[in-house]
Amino acid sequence: MINIIKFGEEVKGYSIPVLNEREIRAAAGILFLAMLISLVLILSGGNFVPIKYMITLFLTDFIIRVFINPKFAPTLIVGRWIVRNQTPEYVGAKQKKFAWIIGIVLASIMFIHMVVINAFSPITGIICLICLIFLFFESAFGICLGCKFYSMIYKEKAQYCPGEICEVKDRHEIQKISLNQWLIVLGLAAYMLVVGLLFDENFRMMPYDIFGIEDTSQQK
Question: In this predicted structure, what is the pLDDT of residue 184?
């Protein structure tokens, strides 16, 4: 039982329990994609069935992560398999546990609201958006937003953060952004604004079926 109920792994060279950030990012990517597809189905056809399944899966997976053992969480197992050929990137387990507790709280509210009560409101929409943002930042950038709250609430500094972001240090030359680079970004924004003003009417027009496939299928 002692070996089953455990949070984090003991790895040689690390003074605290750690987790593999690569498999966590892979799992976040899986959940993000599934949640996004579920929301698209709601917006496009009013189908709430997939999101109810996803909320249940999300909550169950995070409960296993926090209260049993991350190594038994289904999405982390799949994530581990996906990145099995990559060198592990170890991160402190404490801040991850705190972040996942936030996930449990949000998922519990969603579960009660949408699955138990079978209702939706701006509350569910806002929480879904928050979850998507958290998952996207984790999977795309390797930034654990929940872990940042850990450092704000607890006095102790988080250890072994992804990309060593907890450590104060000078950036490498390749990481620095020059004024010219920022001007390029601003230039792109200005360019898109001009394009929007010039071609707004064209962008709003519904594209036509160039091969007439839809018309043919309707005639049948």
Answer: 95
Give residues with Cβ within 8 angstroms of 127, minimum separation 6: 106, 109, 110
In a domain, 220, yes or no: no
pLDDT tens per residue across span 19-62: 999 999 999 999 999 999 999 999 998 999 999 999 999 999 99
Give a yes or no: residue 200 inside a domain.
no
- How far out from the chain centre does Cα 32 lie? 5
In the prediction, which pLDDT does 210 show?
A: 73
C-beta separation of 95 from 144 below 8 A = yes
Q: Where are the alpha helices (DSSP H) in 111-167?
A: 122-136, 145-153
* 203 domain residue, yes or no: no
Domain of 115, in residue numbers: 18-173
Across 68-72, 167-171, 212-216, the highest mean pLDDT is recorded for 68-72
Within-domain flag for 142? yes
In sequence order, what are the beta bridge partners of 18? 9, 92
User: Which residues of the chain form beta strands (DSSP E)?
Assistant: 18-20, 90-92
With a cut of 80, say whether residue 168 has pLDDT above it: no
Domains identified in the chain, total number: 1
Contacts by residues 132-136 (CB-CB < 8 Å, ≥ 24 positions apart) = 132/32, 132/35, 132/36, 132/39, 134/103, 135/28, 135/29, 135/31, 135/32, 135/35, 136/32
